[in-house]
Amino acid sequence: MKLTLPFFGNAAQAMRESRLAEAPMVQRSKMLEYDQALVWVVLLLLLGGLIMVYSASIGLPDSPKYANYKNHHFLLRQAGFIAFGLIAGLVAFRFKVEQWEKWTPWLFLGALVLMALVLIPGIGKGVNGARRWIGFGGFSLQPSEIMKLMMVFYAADFTVRKQQYMHSLSKGFFPVAAAVGVCGGLLMLQPDLGAFGVIVCIAMGILFLGGFNIIWFGGMLAVLAMVFFSIILISPWRYQRMVAFLNPWTDGNELGKAYQLTHSLIAFGRGELFGVGLGGSIEKLHYLPEAHTDFLMAVIGEELGLAGVLLVVTLFYWIVRRAFDIGRQAIAAEKYFAGLVAKGIGIWIGAQVFINMAVNLGLLPTKGLTLPLMSYGGSGIAINCIGLALLLRIDYENRVMMRGGRV
Q1: Partner of 271 for a Cys bridge, out of 21, 22, 214, 301, CB 3.0 to 4.6 A?
Q2: Rounded Cα gap, residues 206 and 215, in angstroms
Q3: Which among 344, 392, 394, 405 has a CA at the least distance from the CA of 147?
Q4: In what order do the strands lie in the sheet with 130-136?
């Protein structure tokens, strides 16, 4: 027996090696672990925004308001915001989507508390007549930016939990309407009508995708339109801005309420097809206020022309479309919360980009709303990075499931 066991062992080993040699090689899946194209598009927009913020702000130190600033002040701060946003996005990516779902009620309540703190004297910080920030030394936090992402979580979580009530007005719509109403009330006290519009788009969009009754949905849109027009009519300065928006070139408007709009349109007109060249904008030289924040797209249009504007629009369109593709894949895998969050992020980015560009082009009244990923601002950049990191996380979990693995 001692002589035969090694023989049989060696023979068995030889047979196994022979079968493995004859069997076809098992190929490893070529599917990437994350969406590299989405990462590169986001980085391209961040880098493009950094360059354009520098271009739009380089002349600001010539004015008395920014006399103590260096020419590269906003460039360095924006670079710091981007670095912080990328780090925050990497941290957010580490958590599973189901963990974010568990945290949703507390995150939403925390965002409401921050929005209320803005209104407290000594805590809230006012700029140009608006109280939208909480100061921390040399930095500021804008809670309305946080609320945009929290509304995505809240609406998605509510839709999943109350799916059987989506055709009910009392149980399917009113709770979300109450949450949006509380947010809207706090935003109108700041005031921030632009952020309120984005939050309404997010909530209504997710409800619609979640199966809300189409007839009730159309009726709610009509009611919301009436509410927005009522807000404009009962507020004298908003009404004046609306009148100026409709007639920007009339006497008094071009140097009054429509001053930003007229100079934004002049910037686009000067840009023509291919622009006047990077750094060559005239309107940014103290003619167009807030050129590095709300009206960055006008500087892009002037310096890079229609070609540059179309490139930016294409990149944002790609992000929104990719968000809906990722959401559809998650829902097909029966991950409903993740799917609605992905689509909600697409609605958020798409709505804010549309409103900002429409304001710059004179299609909507002027309001303080930045261009995602590109305009100057720490809170906006950080929350945009976190939101898109969560979109990448949802896509990552989809890919793991499609490989047959477990998250």
Answers
A1: 301
A2: 16
A3: 344
A4: 124-127, 130-136, 139-141
